[in-house]
């Protein structure tokens, strides 16, 4: 087993730090350089169809039965009960080694005193806090047709008084999967810091995603506070990323061979699904392994969470691209600034970047259908904007308008459909349209796709990453497995992975946030 570097405090000499970075490059590069029921309704222009969730995932509810609320809550508690290694092992907990109230004994050992900084296992946080009076309320999320109030509690995250692992015996591994995202290094750093606070000495990084478990030549990287001290100052992933991976059984074979006790998985929807499969395989083999995920995606498209880490930074960087498009458009005669932003399943980045910029005249997202041609199409509105303003700015999400394009049918290594390029298509359509009607138009197309995800986390995301990383370690020591560390309704909680991977989270066209975006852009209905 690889051992972590032993340090006394957070200081590393420059020479030692350079050696560790060189070692990191050698290891990574070989050189020193649901089943969810959806409501269907007829196509109408406005308002958007309302969706009343009349079932929970496991129980069909009869709303005429006076006891339906009790049935719903019992089913909810069952679904959101956190899986634990104690489900398969009869384990006795031991007092935690995590405390921020410590003192040195005459022999130099640390005394850990209990304090009131622990979370009780019975602590809960409310997932939803708005009581909608009607399904017709903006953004209403109702269980029954009357929008009855039903409390939906989830488990509060944080350190427990009792733990189920001996820290000195633990081997913990961290893996970053999927694409890049601001904040990956912040989370890695905090996981290492918190593990060492518990007393874990054997911490390793798995290089290049799940591939690092089976690819020959990729060796695990020993991690320590000294090594990761400053990695948050850079974007990207200190451990490297990749998409796809081997069969679950092969990954668990590797986990078993490496004698890993805790696995921290940083990634989006697909990575979470993989983490849950690993968790299930470990349970099947009765392995005492805790698998904890941390939600990473700039798209912000994971169910039930307020936001995922990296989203705020991506929006901030996307706003810069929009502002550049605005300057280009305003400075040109009949200028049109067109910006395409990431958003595989949802338009959260496009919507929030448009709102934060305040310069966007048209925002197009995959959740709201639109047409380019015709009396009520986008192109006709652009004509109106050039006549009245002299310029305009358009922001489009990458998955928007795919029904207008020829499908490629290709998929990436993670199995995601590779979209046809709506940005290039719109650029060509706009140029052709204004040429046909004899109106000069100067189109400036900006695609900042990889720029928004390769940068360092901003202050907001850095704080979120810090808390999510620390809570992931607390959850593992508490014995939980198959969970994700996230923020819901402004509170930090643990959710079973099974509940967040049922479907991607999408922008609700009837939500107040989308209405705010429409108010800001002033755009009409294009459908």
TrEMBL record:
GO-annotated molecular function: 6-phosphofructokinase activity; ATP binding; metal ion binding
Known cofactor(s): Mg(2+)
Residues that bind ATP: 179, 243-244, 268-271
Keyword field contains Metal-binding: yes
Chain's gene name: PFK
Entry binding sites for Mg(2+): 269
HAMAP family in alphabetical order: Phosphofructokinase_II_X (MF_01981)
Location in the cell: Cytoplasm
SUPFAM superfamilies: Phosphofructokinase (SSF53784)
GO cellular component, as recorded: cytoplasm
Swiss-Prot/TrEMBL keywords: Allosteric enzyme, ATP-binding, Cytoplasm, Glycolysis, Kinase, Magnesium, Metal-binding, Nucleotide-binding, Transferase
Keyword set includes Cytoplasm: yes
EC number(s) given by UniProt: 2.7.1.11
Subunit structure: Homotetramer.
Protein known as: ATP-dependent 6-phosphofructokinase
Active site residues according to the UniProt entry: 299
Functional pathway: Carbohydrate degradation; glycolysis; D-glyceraldehyde 3-phosphate and glycerone phosphate from D-glucose: step 3/4
Pfam short name (any one): PFK
Role noted for this protein: Catalyzes the phosphorylation of D-fructose 6-phosphate to fructose 1,6-bisphosphate by ATP, the first committing step of glycolysis.
Record site: Important for substrate specificity: 270
Activation/inhibition comment: Allosterically activated by AMP.
NCBIfam families for this protein: PRK06830.1
Catalytic activity: beta-D-fructose 6-phosphate + ATP = beta-D-fructose 1,6-bisphosphate + ADP + H(+)
Domain Phosphofructokinase residue range list: 172-474
């Amino acid at each position: 087993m690889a051992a972590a570097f032993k340090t006394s405090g957070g200081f590393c000499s420059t020479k030692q730090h350079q050696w560790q970075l060189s070692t990191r490059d050698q290891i990574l590069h070989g050189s020193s350089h649901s089943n969810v029921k959806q409501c269907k309704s007829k196509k109408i222009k406005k308002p958007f169809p309302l969706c009343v969730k009349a079932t929970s995932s496991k129980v069909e509810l009869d709303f005429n039965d006076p006891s339906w609320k009790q049935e719903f809550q019992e089913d909810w508690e069952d679904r959101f009960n956190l899986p634990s290694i104690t489900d398969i092992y009869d384990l006795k907990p031991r007092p935690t080694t995590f405390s921020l109230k410590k003192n040195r004994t005459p022999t130099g050992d640390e005394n850990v005193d209990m304090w009131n900084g622990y979370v009780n296992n019975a602590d809960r946080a409310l997932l939803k806090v708005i009581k909608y009076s009607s399904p017709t309320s903006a953004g209403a999320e109702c269980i029954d047709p009357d929008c009855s109030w039903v409390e939906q509690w989830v488990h509060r995250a944080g350190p427990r008084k009792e733990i189920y692992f001996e820290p000195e015996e633990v081997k913990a591994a961290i893996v970053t999967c999927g694409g890049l995202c601001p904040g990956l290094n912040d989370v890695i750093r905090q996981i290492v810091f918190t593990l060492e606070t518990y007393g874990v000495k054997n911490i390793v990084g798995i290089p290049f995603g799940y591939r690092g478990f089976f690819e020959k030549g990729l060796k695990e990287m020993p991690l320590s506070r000294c090594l990761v001290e400053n990695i948050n100052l850079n974007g990207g992933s200190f451990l490297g990323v990749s998409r796809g991976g081997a069969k679950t059984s092969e990954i668990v074979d590797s986990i078993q061979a490496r004698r890993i006790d805790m696995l921290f998985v940083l990634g989006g929807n697909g990575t979470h699904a993989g983490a849950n499969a690993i968790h299930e395989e470990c349970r099947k083999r009765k392995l005492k392994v805790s698998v904890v995920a941390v939600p990473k995606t700039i798209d912000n498209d994971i169910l039930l969470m307020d936001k995922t880490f990296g989203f705020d930074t991506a929006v901030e960087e996307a706003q810069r691209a929009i502002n550049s498009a605005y300057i280009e458009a305003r400075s040109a005669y009949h200028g049109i600034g067109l910006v395409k932003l990431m958003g595989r399943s949802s338009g959260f980045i496009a919507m929030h970047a448009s709102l934060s910029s305040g310069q966007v005249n048209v925002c197009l997202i995959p959740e709201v259908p639109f047409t380019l041609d015709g009396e009520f199409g986008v192109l006709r509105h652009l004509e109106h904007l050039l006549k009245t303003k002299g310029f305009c700015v358009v922001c489009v999400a990458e998955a928007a308008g795919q029904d207008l394009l020829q499908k490629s049918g290709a998929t990436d290594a993670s199995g995601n459909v590779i979209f046809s390029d709506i940005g290039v298509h719109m650029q060509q359509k706009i140029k052709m349209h204004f040429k046909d009607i004899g109106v000069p138009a100067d189109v400036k197309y900006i695609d900042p796709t990889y720029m928004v995800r390769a940068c360092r986390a901003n202050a907001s995301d850095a704080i979120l990453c810090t808390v999510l990383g620390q809570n992931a370690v607390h959850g593992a020591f508490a014995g939980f497995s198959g969970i994700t560390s996230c923020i819901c309704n402004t509170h930090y909680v643990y959710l079973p992975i099974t509940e967040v991977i049922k479907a991607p989270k999408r922008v609700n066209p009837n939500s107040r946030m989308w209405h705010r975006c429409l108010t800001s852009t002033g755009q009409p209905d294009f459908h």
